[in-house]
Structures are given as C-alpha cells and as structure tokens.
Amino acid sequence: GSSWNNCDFETNLCKVLPEFNLQPGWIRRNGRSGMGPPYSDHNGNESAYFLSLSSEMQFSSATLRTSVFLPTDEEHLCQIRFHYWVSQMSRTLMVGLQKLSEDTVTNIWQVSGELRNQWNVNTITVNSTEKFEVIFSGMVETQRQGESVAIDDITFSEGC
C-alpha cells in the first residue's frame, strides 16, 4: 500500500536508497537501453526504469546500501519486497543485513541464476535489535553477453 516506501527507479530520487545513482556497477536503465535483457521492467513496460548490473563491470560485485533503519520490534516488522531478475548460473543476487555495531554483513537471502529469463518477486522480513542497513549485492563470476542481474520496485514497510 501507500504506507510502503517505494523505489521504482522511475526517477533518480529514492529516499531509502540515497546513493543508488552513485553506486559503481549498478545502472538505472530501461528495456530499450540496448544493454541486453531484461527488455522490460517487471510489469512488462519497455520504457520503465529498473536497476541492472553493468555489463562492463570490471569487478566481481556491486552493492546497493539502504539508509540506516531503526531497530525493529514485534509491532513494527521491517518487510522489504522487491522484484528481481537473475539470468545464468554465473550471476548471484544477495540481500544482507549490516548492524551498525558490526563490520560484517550477514547474508539473509540469496538467489543464483536460474536459466529462465523472467522477473520474480520476493519479500524478506528483517529483525534487528539495533540500527541496521540492508545491502543488495549483485555478483558476477564470468562475463558473458546476454546475462543480467536486475532489481525493480523495492518497497519498504513502515517498520523499516
């Protein structure tokens, strides 16, 4: 609903992902960009925008970091819903949790390439007794044409 903070990437503004347009490796583009799949956003719209990993990536992973969220409690669960596209086995998308007191990122969800080229949707629930950030990481093992990792429509519930 409207109570969720939504990042649909149609503009460069996204309160919950303040630096997404500065992150190396992720590109805001649409299906007409000539960069290979996906050729539309998760609604099938060729001109609507999403984020995808750059095919020119010289490094193996690219991260997307949220702003800092307050601790969750039973009444205010932080739910994050997002659409994702991962093609081919050498591609992985991970979602991690970083508590501000810790240096390490705890992996809370990941998917590796399925050979079906299609958008999928997932919702994850985050529990944290302290302030935290959520990190989306796309990883590439080998460079091949026509392979892609993409994210669209990330929505954050009020508990985030």
TrEMBL record:
**One of this protein's Pfam families, by short name?**
MAM
List each copy of the MAM domain by range. 5-160
GO cellular-component terms in the record?
membrane
This protein's source sits in the domain of life called Eukaryota
The UniProt entry, under PANTHER family, shows: APICAL ENDOSOMAL GLYCOPROTEIN PRECURSOR, MAM DOMAIN-CONTAINING PROTEIN
The protein's name is MALR1 protein
Q: Which InterPro entries match?
A: ConA-like_dom_sf (IPR013320), MAM_dom (IPR000998), MAM_domain-containing (IPR051560)
Gene from which the chain derives: Malrd1
